[in-house]
């Protein structure tokens, strides 16, 4: 087992990702786009997280398309109410997610 020289914690654990998840301030909002289409925006992620992996999980669970643009996850359709419980299951604290 390797020890991280900066923090003295085991390097192979997901401790750093869990700490990063607890310090997020995530905002979920909807926006109207061209031709009356609505999209759901999930913003407020820091650079330390795998945003593409989170977007992939959201797209799979919501059965929709989407993308990541400049650290903001864009999901096709209005999924504002469904996103929060999924993010909580992924390990984000409920208090850090606002609608």
Topology:
Layout: H1 15-22, E1 26-32, E2 38-43, H2 51-62, E3 66-69, E4 72-76, H3 80-89, E5 97-98
Parallel strand pairs: 1-5
Antiparallel strand pairs: 1-2, 2-4, 3-4
Helix pairs in contact: 2-3
Keywords for this structure?
single chain; 99 residues; alpha+beta; Translation Initiation Factor Eif1; five-stranded mixed beta sheet; 5 strands
Which regions have little confidence, pLDDT < 50, spanning 5+ residues?
none
The largest sheet is: 5 strands, mixed
Q: Label the structural class.
A: alpha+beta
How would you sum up the global shape? elongated
CATH classification, class level: Alpha Beta
Instruction: Write down the oligomeric state.
Output: single chain
The strands making up the biggest β-sheet line up spatially as 3-4-2-1-5
Topology, number of strands: 5
Radius of gyration, in Å, reads 15 Å
Helix and strand succession? HEEHEEHE
Q: Quote the CATH topology.
A: Translation Initiation Factor Eif1
Q: Classify the beta-strand content into a percent band.
A: 15-25%
Q: What is the CATH architecture assignment?
A: 2-Layer Sandwich
Mean pLDDT: 84
Tell me the number of structural domains: 1
Count helical runs. Answer: 3
Tell me the helix content: 25-40%
Q: Your description of this structure?
A:
- The chain is α+β, with helices and mostly antiparallel strands.
- The protein has a single domain, classed as SUI1-like domain (Translation Initiation Factor Eif1).
- Helices cover 30% and strands 24% of the residues.
- The chain contains 3 helices and 5 strands.
- The protein has helices at 15-22, 51-62, 80-89; strands spanning 26-32, 38-43, 66-69, 72-76, 97-98.
- Strands 3-4-2-1-5 form a 5-stranded mixed beta sheet, with helices on one face.
- A hairpin with a 5-residue loop joins strand 1 (26-32) and strand 2.
- Helix 2 (51-62) crosses helix 3.
- The protein starts with 14 loop residues before the first helix and ends with a strand.
- The mean pLDDT is 84.
């Amino acid at each position: 087992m390797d020890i991280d020289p900066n923090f003295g914690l085991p390097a192979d654990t997901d401790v750093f990702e869990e700490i990063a998840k607890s310090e997020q301030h995530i905002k979920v909002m909807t926006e109207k786009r061209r031709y009356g289409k609505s999209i759901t925006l999930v913003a407020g992620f820091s650079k330390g997280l795998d945003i593409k992996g989170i977007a992939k999980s959201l797209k799979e669970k919501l059965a929709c398309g989407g993308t990541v643009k400049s650290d903001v996850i864009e999901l096709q359709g209005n999924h504002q109410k469904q996103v929060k419980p999924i993010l909580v299951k992924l390990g984000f604290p409920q208090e850090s997610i606002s609608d």
